[in-house]
Amino acid sequence: MKIKFVGPLASKLGKEVEIKVEGKMRVIDAIEELKSKFPQIRDDLSDLNFYNISINGQLLRHDEIEETLVEDKDEMVLIPAIAGGSKAVKIKKIIRKNFDASRMSYSAFEEKYGFFKALAKSLSDFLNAKGESCLDVGCGTGILGEVLTGWKITGIDISKEMVREASGKLEHVVVGDGERLPFRDDSFDAVLFNASIFLIPDAEKALEEAFRVVKPGGIVAGSYIYGLYHRKKDVLEELGLRHREVFPRERIDGMVRERNGEIGEIVYEMKREIVIDFYSIPAMSNALFPGFDYQERLRLVREKLSELPQKIEFVWKLFKISRPDLTN
Q1: N or C: which end of the chain has fewer CB within 10 A?
Q2: For 41-100, what is each residue's pLDDT tens digit?
Q3: 155-164 burial: b if 16+ Cβ within 10 Å, else e
């Protein structure tokens, strides 16, 4: 059976190797055979959540790896789920770890306040588009599935725990990286980044990928955090704090304008306790207090944010960009 590689594995073994498959074999066993034949990549393949696997051009869900059977005539492709150099990969692993740890608290926050559903609804209204297929990049818990009714939604997220949570809400979900989308060109009517594009180290590359997989005439859209304000003052800045963005909001503004996109704004009136609960989510607390363990971050969130005004404006931006249809 031919096995092809993209990324670091190609540097170690070349772009293609072969293993012998007698009769039918599970994909997971074929990979074990691969590691046995080429022990120098054993460590690389120790966690398959860091790879997307396709068989004969068909991308597998991670829960299919242990059950799907292959034969010697089949072709497997191993694609890294996380793109980028060493610094970007390190950042993504931190993001992944924090969102893996956020599954339960994220869901509890949403059940209590319905915030991300409201944000998804705002994006849907701003999008104002009809279609059949949608890619949700950074799908989180799959909240778009509760809002975009009538769409077939495919989700992709760097966090395997978020993918697990989203699997019951979306049509299809995979672990993967927005900078390297494991989908064919012109696959979706819309590609959405709901509260996710600012978490991608190379958001410009992610936007390029979005335009590659969206169909001509389709739309790329998203939402991104812009700040917490009271009487037009940045309340975090007033406390000597900063929400650290992986990709700065001003650069997102610039990317959208360069592509002749449209930018909107949504303002949520919030009580202080909601903001404290928002930043108590592990992934969110890391944006305020990176470098500390979660319990210390939680202590700092409750201590520092107790000084916030009682009522706060939580500002988000929305964007949408159409891909020209040059055939018309």
Answers
A1: C
A2: 888 787 776 777 889 988 787 678 888 999 999 999 988 766 655 577 788 888 999 999
A3: bbbbbbbbbb
